[in-house]
Specification:
Blueprint: H1 11-14, H2 20-27, E1 38-43, E2 52-54, E3 64-66, E4 72-73, E5 77-82, H3 83-93
Antiparallel strand pairs: 1-5, 2-3, 3-4
Length: 98
């Protein structure tokens, strides 16, 4: 028969807070989760095109390149869209959605 693991004292007690809410507030932890799915679109910071790809290679760790303007770098722009915004984005771009 396997042993039961010992119970661990919660961090908010160990650090001297009166309640979990006070601990979360002091640490900046929010219990709110995003209710809807979000989509990330990576764009070129120079020409704002979404035709960017990861550069594969030993010396190019984390580097991106734009196929439209030729930009290359690590600071690619990321846009987060909701599902409705993403579908509108695809419609405006002319992509077919199954």
């Amino acid at each position: 028969m396997a042993k039961k693991p010992k119970m661990k004292t919660p961090d908010w007690i160990l650090e001297g807070y009166d309640s979990p809410e006070a601990y979360n507030k002091a640490k900046g932890i929010t219990g709110e989760k995003k209710s809807k799915k979000t989509f990330k679109i990576r764009k070129c910071p120079k020409c704002d095109s979404d035709d960017v790809n990861v550069v594969v290679g030993k010396e190019a760790a984390g580097e991106w390149e734009c196929k439209k303007c030729g930009w290359s770098g690590v600071d690619v722009k990321i846009d987060e869209l909701s599902e409705e915004e993403f579908m509108k984005y695809l419609d405006d771009k002319g992509e077919e959605v199954a």
